[in-house]
Design brief:
About 45% of the residues lie in helices and about 5% in strands. It is mainly α. α1 runs antiparallel to α5 and α2 (about 45-60) packs antiparallel against α5. It is globular.
Length: about 500
């Protein structure tokens, strides 16, 4: 009973953090009614894990998160039908943070990521109930691997939260049983990142190297890649090199090439070997009926004024600076992969309507990675990006992290860098610099999870961004709605 009360309380607290008390009587997506589970039935042990994947899929694909992650860099502007269309994103884009504190998207993103954190704690408690009935070493090893899948998602949520906000609370599930409302203090960024790495160490120890029963589930190498990204943000290049060396040597992964690269972000590329983690969606190969769809994450980046299924809201448009960067590098193949030009036909034959927004000096160029050619979409489905997955962690990122680490600590940086460049149809670089690696990351990882802005911040190069002030603009402001709920969030970090 104590554990069930704890679960119920955590659910209440996660709802309180959303400031939507009308949800108190609604079971959250990704949770499992605990009274319906037979904890002696080992065949049910994966159900809590599936619940976390469901929650991650729902929370991380919310469209409003994507501009917050990406518009502060030098790749894209918010886009939209007009300058005022979701115009509050411009406060984020222009580093006018005081005016962004009350922005609904800022609060929604905070709530979504923390709901995922709470959900992992909820479902870990359910795993503990199964654990009480296990005796064999084999069963214990299995439940450890399942629990590691849950914990990975908590680490991923904290990685994103801390990249966006810096000093943030680490939720202690034991504390929240002692009173409502739960009002934690923020922890320092250093402590949060150390916590993430500790969580990932458990995952690395217990996750399998491959997932045969659950294709696309996280593996040991997924957790290692995320730990390398945390170390990269910290500037711990020795750790980055060690982790990525191991992935490269042991995982047996190679990059897709040719047509497979063009299709990597499309339906044929779902769960490609070079993907270390994807948010998975499906239409069940049916042209009607229920589907698990990434929804507005795809739709808001689709071309404006198009016809279904090649139509969307027209957000996330490339800046001229990024287009010139790609042209100067002769990025023909990656241009086709990552950039959707309005007023032109795609290599797959779809016509993208010309859109010339009055707030830009150039026509619209959209993010090409959410685009799915119409001939790949199941007949009967008319949603932009229908049946496609969202890439989260990629082997190309591992190679580029490895190359950068080798530049910084010594080693053959050209090898991993040129593996990525060769796939993109570019000439090799024999003695790369860190700037060469950062340019390669800019071209390869464009508009993916805020990588570009975070790269500029961690290398001290964000000063090139108009309006950015070092020491002020690295992290978004805590949402005003959250400070109203918990005044401790306005206080300095306490470790």
């Amino acid at each position: 009973m104590k554990k069930l009360n704890k679960i119920a309380l955590m659910l209440i607290m996660s709802v309180l953090m959303s400031s939507c008390t009308d949800w108190l009587d609604i079971v959250q997506e990704g949770t499992i009614p605990s009274e319906d589970i037979d904890y002696t039935d080992k065949s049910l042990m994966y159900a809590p894990v599936s619940g976390v994947y469901s929650q991650a899929r729902a929370r991380l694909s919310q469209w409003e998160i994507w501009p917050l992650l990406n518009v502060r860099g030098d790749e894209v502007t918010k886009g939209g039908g007009s300058l005022n269309d979701q115009g509050e994103y411009l406060n984020v884009e222009n580093f006018n943070y005081p005016l962004a504190k009350g922005f609904w998207a800022l609060n929604n993103t905070w709530v979504s990521f923390y709901k995922l954190v709470f959900n992992t704690h909820d479902n870990q408690v359910l795993m503990d109930n199964f654990r009480e009935h296990l005796t064999s070493d084999e069963d214990i090893a299995l439940i450890n691997s399942y629990e590691a899948e849950i914990i990975f998602h908590r680490a991923l949520a904290y990685y994103l939260i801390s990249n966006l906000w810096g000093d943030v609370p680490i939720i202690n599930p034991e504390d929240i049983t002692y009173g409502i409302p739960y009002q934690p203090y923020r922890n320092s960024l250093a402590k949060v990142r150390e916590y993430i790495k500790e969580e990932l160490d458990f995952c690395i120890q217990h996750l399998p190297e491959t997932q045969t029963s659950h294709p696309g589930a996280v593996t040991k190498y997924t957790a290692m890649a995320l730990k390398a990204k945390v170390a990269l943000m910290e500037g711990d290049f020795s750790l980055v090199e060690s982790i990525t060396d191991q992935i490269i040597l042991e995982a047996g992964i190679s990059l897709s090439e040719g047509d497979a690269y063009y299709n990597y972000f499309k339906i044929p590329g779902k769960l490609a070997p070079e993907s270390l983690y994807e948010l998975q969606f499906t239409d069940f190969d049916n042209g009607s009926g229920d589907q698990i769809y990434g929804g507005s994450w795809f739709g808001h980046q689709g071309p404006a004024q198009g016809e279904a299924p090649i139509a969307g809201w027209g957000f996330i448009m490339f800046e001229k600076e990024h287009l010139d960067f790609m042209k100067d590098r002769n990025e023909d193949l990656r241009w086709e992969v990552s950039i959707l030009s309005s007023g032109e036909f795609t290599p797959a034959g779809d016509s993208i309507p010309l859109f010339e927004p009055d707030y830009q000096d150039i026509k619209a160029y959209y993010n090409g990675k959410p685009y799915v050619p119409s001939d790949q979409i199941t007949p009967g489905r008319n949603d932009y990006g229908s049946n496609n997955n969202i890439k989260v962690l990629r082997y190309a990122d591992v190679l580029l992290m490895n190359a950068e680490a080798k530049v910084m600590v010594g080693g053959n940086a050209a090898g991993p860098l040129n593996e990525v460049r060769t796939r993109a149809g570019l000439d090799p670089i024999n003695s790369p610099t860190q700037d060469d690696i950062l340019d390669e990351r800019r071209a390869e990882l464009s508009v993916e999870w805020g990588n570009r802005f975070f790269d500029l911040v961690r290398t001290g190069k964000a000063g090139k961004l108009e309006g950015f002030v070092a020491g002020e603009h690295e992290y978004l402001p805590i949402p005003l709605a959250q400070e109203d709920l918990n005044p401790n969030l306005a206080e300095p970090a306490v470790d």
